[in-house]
Predict the structure.
Amino acid sequence: MSKTLKKYNIEAEELEKSYKLPEIVQQRNQTINKLSVKLGEQILDVGCGVGLLSYEIAKRIGDSGKLFGIDINLDMIRHANKRCKNLRNTKFSEANADNLPFKKEFFDAVCCTQVLLYVNDVPNVLREIKRILKPKGRIIIVETDWRGVVINSNYDSITSRIFSAWDATVPSPNLPVYLGPFLLNSGFCNIDVEAIPILNTEYTSSQFSHGMMKWISRNAVKKSAITREQSEIWLDDLDEKGKSGNYFFCVNRFLFSAKLS
C-alpha cells in the first residue's frame, strides 16, 4: 500500500470511529429530521465520507428514491459503498463540490456536513448546489465555529497557538458567521439556523473531544505552531483534568437549512 493510500485509509477509519460517537449520532439524527426526507426523493450527500448519513437517508427515501454521495477521497467512497451494499438506491462517486457532475434541477435536496470549511470559494459551491436543485429544493449544511471553543486548560498560550494553527489549515474556519448571507446572496430563502452544542465534561475515548484534541494538537506540531513537547504537556494537562473531574470542553456546530423559491 502506498503512503497516500495508507493515509486515506487511516483517515477513513478515524472518521468511522468519530462519527459513531454519541454526540455525532445526535447531530446526524437532528440533520435527518431537519431534512424532512420523503419517499421517492433524489438527494445528494456532498462530502459523504464513510456514508453514515447517506445510509440513514437512503433507508428513508425507499427504492423509488435515490441517494447520491460524492467525496474527493476514494477510500471514503469504498467505505460508503460497503456500508450501503445491501441498499439498491445508492450511488457513490468521486467528485469535487465546486464542480458537481449532475444536470440542472436534478435533486430534491442536498446535504453538506463539515465540508464547506475546506472550500476556497464557498459562494461558488452554493451556486453549484443551486444549479442542481429543483425549484423549492432544500439544502442542509452543518459547520463548526472553532473560534468559539471553550476548553479548560492551564496553558492558554499553547491552546491559542493550537487553535490558530487550525484556523490556518482550512480556508473558512469561521464559516458559520458568513454562511447565512452567502446562502441569501446565492438565491436561497427561508434560512434557519439551529445550534448543535458538543459538550464534554469527561476526557475519555468515548467523547468527541478526546480524539479531536489529539488530532488538533498534532496538526499544530505539524504546522510548527508548537513543539512536540508542548503538545505532550498540553494533552497531559487535559488528561489530568479528566481524571480529577475538572475537564470541560464545548464547541458549537450550526445546522443551516434553506430552500429555493
Notes: Confidence is low (pLDDT under 50) at residues 1-8. Strands lie at 42-46, 66-71, 90-94, 107-113, 133-144, 150-151, 188-200, 249-260. The first helix runs from residue 3 to 18.
